[in-house]
Amino acid sequence: MGVGSVTLVGGGPGDPDLLTIAAARALASADVVLYDRLAPRDALAELAPHAELIDVGKRPGHHPIGQGEIERLLVEHALRGAAVVRLKGGDPFVFGRGSEEADACHRAGVPVRVIPGVTSAIAVPAAAGIPVTHREVSRLFTVVSGHAPLERSELEHLAGLGGTIVVLMGVSNLPSISAGLLRAGMAPETPVAVVERGYSAGQRTTFAELAQIREAADRAGVRSPAVIVIGEVVHRARLGDAGAEAVLVDAVSRPGGGA
Ligand code: SAH
Prior knowledge:
The protein is 32% helix and 20% strand. With 259 residues, it is α/β, with parallel strands linked by helices. The protein has two domains: 5-118, Cobalt-precorrin-4 Transmethylase, domain 1, CATH 3.40.1010.10; 121-253, Methyltransferase, Cobalt-precorrin-4 Transmethylase, Domain 2, CATH 3.30.950. The termini are far apart.
């Protein structure tokens, strides 16, 4: 048997309806699927009926299967002739280590293809009624990883940009990110939204001004996965998501509510 292939597939933000047609086709003809925690995993048995399904999901702080081991598995299955799909949450090239996996395949002589996905950086704010750009409100958006604390110079640049800031993997560093942006001169009343578990039944949005977001997130018990949106576009949510509106009203009506 000849060499198989690896297809890096963006699975979108969790709802199987947000897979691309190319993603669904790749899954339908896969022999092996290695999938992540944030990939649309519930529908996999139906979408990839002939495939062996391997869960390589990582939870924050836990690493059941390391990155090196994932790369080794991709290459090993492809070299024995399998059509391998590597299904990732969102887009494979947005904080997804997709290009590292592509490198590993190239090094091993395994053909690799990439199918882009709907990234949570844009889609999860949208689920809460927040557009990342809006005419005359924001003409740029920056997507930043909050996984590691941001450097002072990064915070200063971000604070000076004047558009929308979208933070992924930012829940645990939210206190230092919000404090850092305030120190760097961002207006304390800049609106912030934290959108948890986008596209699931448990989707929830917490709103506050930048100066109060740390406290509001604490009070709400905000947890990963969540997308943090910072900037004037957050006000647009009031026109959209009914659930988000209810949370906002709730936060405002509580004693000491900071939203
Ligand atoms: N490649 C992915 C991002 C991987 S980093 C993409 O393009 O979407 C993982 C982070 O994405 C999480 O910590 C969270 O910030 C965000 N995320 C992904 N899916 C999400 C969802 N359904 N709801 C909220 N946040 C999500």
